[in-house]
UniProtKB/TrEMBL annotation:
<feature type="domain" description="Glutamyl/glutaminyl-tRNA synthetase class Ib catalytic">
    <location>
        <begin position="64"/>
        <end position="353"/>
    </location>
</feature>
<dbReference type="GO" id="GO:0005739">
    <property type="term" value="C:mitochondrion"/>
</dbReference>
<dbReference type="GO" id="GO:0008270">
    <property type="term" value="F:zinc ion binding"/>
</dbReference>
<dbReference type="InterPro" id="IPR008925">
    <property type="entry name" value="aa_tRNA-synth_I_cd-bd_sf"/>
</dbReference>
<comment type="similarity">
    <text>Belongs to the class-I aminoacyl-tRNA synthetase family. Glutamate--tRNA ligase type 1 subfamily.</text>
</comment>
<keyword id="KW-0030">Aminoacyl-tRNA synthetase</keyword>
<dbReference type="GO" id="GO:0006424">
    <property type="term" value="P:glutamyl-tRNA aminoacylation"/>
</dbReference>
<keyword id="KW-0648">Protein biosynthesis</keyword>
<keyword id="KW-0436">Ligase</keyword>
<keyword id="KW-0547">Nucleotide-binding</keyword>
<dbReference type="InterPro" id="IPR020058">
    <property type="entry name" value="Glu/Gln-tRNA-synth_Ib_cat-dom"/>
</dbReference>
<dbReference type="GO" id="GO:0005524">
    <property type="term" value="F:ATP binding"/>
</dbReference>
<dbReference type="InterPro" id="IPR049940">
    <property type="entry name" value="GluQ/Sye"/>
</dbReference>
<dbReference type="GO" id="GO:0000049">
    <property type="term" value="F:tRNA binding"/>
</dbReference>
<dbReference type="GO" id="GO:0004818">
    <property type="term" value="F:glutamate-tRNA ligase activity"/>
</dbReference>
<dbReference type="InterPro" id="IPR004527">
    <property type="entry name" value="Glu-tRNA-ligase_bac/mito"/>
</dbReference>
<dbReference type="InterPro" id="IPR033910">
    <property type="entry name" value="GluRS_core"/>
</dbReference>
Length: 636
């Protein structure tokens, strides 16, 4: 008997289709699982990047940092950068910033270097919590005053067999180096005295034989970790280097390790040129059983040719910036971005037109992190001009609020300039003067009896203009040249700020007003409220409008609004053009400043005062009539 026969399912049956769909869904599930698995590993952060991010985070605990210059020279751009970054890390974490003077190289000390160092750091706006001049719990802060501490630690290494006395004379060591160089061999210390027994060493030292103390370095290169360069290890092991010199003073390598430990320094930020020496320092920490601080080595500063900045480079010395009236805020902002990546734009609440790279010192503190660039840093002084322009915007207000700072700039900039102005006036009154070339004496009318630009608050604007000149320190020289007739350069070259400011000390002469009109305006094309008018009528209109401004409204903001509302009231056709334009501002600048570029018209009006401004508008009416009379085009 045959078995039960079941009907065959057609290939396209619902069951077959279901099985096919289920199979595809299962395959799709596996594909999705594989895709998500790949995606998660693909988009997960690289472990190296995670480690770098961790290294660049600010510590959660207060940091103690130090700036430890040697008074063998003066503060320069690179050392200011080192000081700034250590300062920022201490302030950003609520820690302490220490100033330590490393004066162990007694033969190379510069007599006034330490005094000038304090001056330059304070000029730049940096302060310290501990140092030679402010004391502190870990002093003294001058290495030459800490010699017993270094000898104590050197003796400890001697007693533990981690260091030894070296009785080799300087002459013998030089002969060894010479012979090694000639043979093409390494010039490492040959270890001559490393075999001297402790007993013999003690005996020779007791008899007064001169010696240095050398650290017994490991024959295996030490691996160190850096916050910028991560892990670093030299290929060759360290020499048995000197830690105490024959004169009893410690070497830099030894003293800075002992001091950083005893001053509880947590972080050391310094130039990359010290990276190669850091294994020596870490090996000393290990020998004492101490935990090293965290190191961050900054890229070398190089010029545009990628050569290391030399002392001859114009932007190295602090004097170079001070003599050119670069603001301390400008210099710190410039220096901060020489290797630091700056603040994250996403975290900054920006004002309209604000550049996130423009920062005050406090803003640097608030946004500081340990994100430093690797490699050489090109110093481009063109960026300095940008930062100077930005920081000068708020400088007049800051200046007026700081009497000591104002007095300093008064003495250094304003007084020589006023002396120069007096000499120019003397030359103006002397028709036989031979030293007025380039001054445009004929453009000057009568002097203002009491120029308000010399008064608070306007003097801040004057100082701002004078600071833009790199030659303002030559103002006294310019005045002397005017008096003596020995004019090597025009006063205009010595004081570029003279021309934008001259009509705030003198009224414009009628000739200056007429000359400007004849060169720039078609006098037959003037309109007032879209109707033909004479320029004298247009000036009379402005005179009336501005004379009616009430006293309290005579301020920069209100005047700006008044003139903006009347911008299109006066029209004209510029000389050499066919199309008319409307620009009341242009005629205000002509009437008040003879068209000279300089301060804004509202600010110039405020500085001159309402009475003088209205008087100049009235004088402009007569100058307009005079220009009409002498216009050569109209007389044809």
């Amino acid at each position: 008997m045959g078995g039960l026969l079941l009907p065959r399912r057609p290939a396209g049956s619902i069951f077959a289709r279901w099985r096919t769909v289920a199979s595809l869904a299962q395959q799709n599930h596996h594909l999705q699982a594989r895709w998500f698995s790949c995606s998660s590993s693909r988009f997960a952060e690289n472990p190296a990047k995670l480690a770098q991010k961790e290294r660049t985070k600010l510590p959660d605990t207060p940091c103690r940092t130090r700036f430890a210059p040697s008074p063998t020279g003066y503060l320069h751009l690179g050392s200011l950068r080192t000081a700034l970054f250590n300062y920022l890390l201490a302030r950003a974490t609520g820690g302490q910033f220490v100033l330590r003077i490393e004066d162990t190289d007694q033969s190379r000390l510069v007599p006034d270097a330490e005094r000038k160092l304090y001056q330059d750091l304070k000029w730049a706006g940096l302060s310290w919590d501990e140092g030679p001049d402010v004391n502190g719990p870990f002093g003294p802060y001058r290495q030459s005053e800490r010699l017993p501490l270094y000898h104590e630690h050197a003796d400890k290494l001697l007693s533990e067999g981690k260091a030894y006395r070296c009785f080799c004379t300087p002459e013998a060591l030089e002969e060894h180096k010479r012979a090694a160089n000639e043979a093409g061999s390494p010039t490492l210390y040959p270890g001559t005295c490393s075999h001297v027994s402790p007993e013999e060493s003690n005996e020779r030292a007791a008899k007064g034989e001169k010696f240095a103390i050398r650290f017994k370095s490991s024959k295996t290169p030490v691996r160190i970790q850096d916050l910028v360069y991560n892990y670093y290890q030299k290929k060759e092991f360290e020499d048995d280097y000197i830690i105490i010199k024959r004169d009893g003073f410690p070497t830099y390598h030894f003293a800075n390790v002992v001091d950083d430990k005893h001053m509880e320094i947590t972080h050391v930020i310094r130039g990359a040129e010290w990276l190669i020496s850091t294994p020596k320092h870490v090996e000393l920490y290990n020998a004492f059983g101490w935990k090293p601080p965290q190191f961050a080595h900054l890229g070398l500063l190089v010029d545009e040719k990628r050569q290391k900045l030399s002392k001859r480079h114009s932007g190295v010395s602090m004097n170079w910036y001070q003599e050119r009236n670069i603001l301390p805020e400008t210099l710190l902002n410039f220096v901060a971005l020489l290797g630091w990546r700056g603040r994250d734009p996403a975290t900054v609440v920006k004002k309209p037109g604000q550049n996130v790279d423009v920062m005050s010192l406090q803003e640097m503190v608030d946004s500081f992190n340990l994100k430093f660039s690797k490699g050489d840093i090109i110093v481009s002084l063109s960026k300095l001009s940008f930062f100077q322009k930005e920081h000068l915007k708020d400088f007049p207000t800051k200046l007026i609020s700081d009497p000591a700072l104002l007095a300093s700039y008064q003495s250094r900039l304003v007084n020589p300039f006023v002396e120069f102005i007096h000499k120019v006036e003397a030359a103006r009154q002397n028709p036989n003067a031979t030293t007025t070339a380039g001054l445009g004496i004929e453009s000057l009318g009568e002097p203002l009896p009491e120029p308000k630009i010399l008064e608070i608050p306007h003097v801040g604007e004057l100082i701002k203009v004078l600071m833009k000149s790199a030659e303002t320190e030559s103002g006294t020289e310019a005045a002397n040249q005017l008096a003596s007739g020995e004019q090597k350069a025009t006063p205009a070259q010595l004081y570029p700020g003279f021309f934008p400011l001259k009509y705030l000390f003198w009224s414009p002469s009628q000739k200056a007003l007429e000359d400007y009109l004849l060169q720039s305006v078609d006098l037959d094309s003037v309109t007032l409220h879209d109707k033909p008018a004479s320029l004298a009528q247009a000036m009379a209109y402005l005179e009336k409008e501005l004379s009616e401004v009430e006293g309290d409204a005579w301020n920069e903001g209100a005047l700006n609004k008044i003139l903006a509302e009347r911008k299109n009231d006066i029209g004209f056709i510029p000389k050499g053009q066919d199309k008319p334009t409307k620009n009341t501002w242009k005629f205000c600048r002509w009437a008040i400043l003879a068209g000279e570029q300089g301060f804004s018209i509202p600010l110039s009006m405020v500085i001159l005062g309402q009475k003088e401004t209205v008087r100049r508008l009235n004088a402009a009416k007569f100058a307009a009539e005079g220009a009409v009379a002498v216009d050569p085009v109209r007389s044809i």
